[in-house]
Fold:
Amino acid sequence: MKNSGPSAFLVAALLASSCTKEQKTSADQESGARKSSIRSSSTTKQVSKEQAVAKKIRGAFDPTLDERLRSLNLDKLVREFTADEFDAIWQQLMDEATPSGTKRDVIPLVLQRYTELGHFPEAFALAKSLESGSVRSSSFGGIFSRASIPLGEQLKLRRGLETPEDRSMAASGIGPAHHASFKDDTFDSVGKAFASFEKLDEEEQKILDFRLGSLLTNARSQGPKSSLSAVKESVRLLQSLAGSGKIPSSVVGETLVNITSGDPLALWEGSKDLFRSVFPEENGIPDSLASDMAFRDAKRTLDLIVQNNGSNGIEQSLESLLSSDNAAATVWLEANQAKLTAGQKQEVTKAIAEYSLKKGDLSASKQAAYQISNETVRAEVLNRIEKREISEVSSAVKADPVGTLESLTQSSRVGDNSALIEAAVSTWLGTDSDGAGEWYMANAEKFSPPQQSAVYSAFARQSISAGDLTRAEQWASSIPDGDAQMIIRGEIAVARRSAK
Structure:
């Protein structure tokens, strides 16, 4: 049979193949269109995101916007920007069109936020690239306050900074209790962090205080045993640093007082021997610690000091108790007066003198002061009392000069009141020199020789102030007391030299 063409099966197969190719071509075209559409959509989204970021930055930096709105936008941007947005913000900050005031205020905050987002190395490098000045220094403060790298690395990076201002601000960032890396501290890790330095500077000593204080605070929350253990660990570490010359020996005690201020009474009672070993001269209770203890419980502190056979802290504690509960202070004094040592009695007497002075009872204060056995301490207290008396007398003279002076000449006050007489006359001379002079001449016989010396000294000093040195010499020659006369003549000589 003659072949007249392809069989029906072959035709069907060819048609099917042709159809499949067309369908495949169509499907490929559709797939390509979808991919193109997805790419286009992705690009659109990316552009849209970049536009949104750019708009947000413009809203924060655009000088044409309302100042209050711009400030709110800038504050929100600085607090909430993401790591992906940092480059665009930094570029804007570096733009010459951005006002210098904005740069000064914002750059440290932006770098702090960037560090918080986990980019400490980049933020640190950018801060170092800034020109030396307050912006760069402040930036280091912000960056280090959010750095989560180990303490030892932070200290080494701080040491490598160029200027004292940079190092100081970095230290302020490393120290405070909110620091991000505090949670990783242990006594061993803190010790190792500082051990790599030959000697700690003052700011590093403060950082050490903060770190040990944080460890002690955490231990305190776990109970008395943990708290006492932490104190001992602190002292062990401090003594180790002092022994190797990294910190002065005095810092051991100062730091111990600083870090125990949270609950000084409980800590002292639980570790008396430790405190005595660190503060042997104060019998275990230095002044600063005594103040903290008295603030917590003055009566209990007084009992502890007396039981400890010490005297340091009695003055602060008794003054505190007299102020807060005078009756309880009186009871305590009556119960303990007989068993107080000589040193303790002196501290008690001084406390009464100081308390009476603060209360304004100058007579009681002076009576107590004269009973202080130590001459230097007694003189210091009496000097403070006299200054207060002079102030009061000067005020009284302005209201009633004659009455005040007559009261002083007839006074039965303890001790010499010549300084008060001079203060009264000087004040009166300043307001009515003729009246003061006339009154004195009419009442000179009422004044004792020491009081007359005080009056003539006041007249002489008034003449010196007025520039009448001849008149001042005349007054000086009338001063009965030789020492007082010598002092005035010395002041006249100084005035003559100054006038040339």
Notes: The chain has 26 helices and no strands. Residues 171 and 204 are 7 Å apart (CA to CA). The mean pLDDT is 82. The longest helix spans residues 8-61.
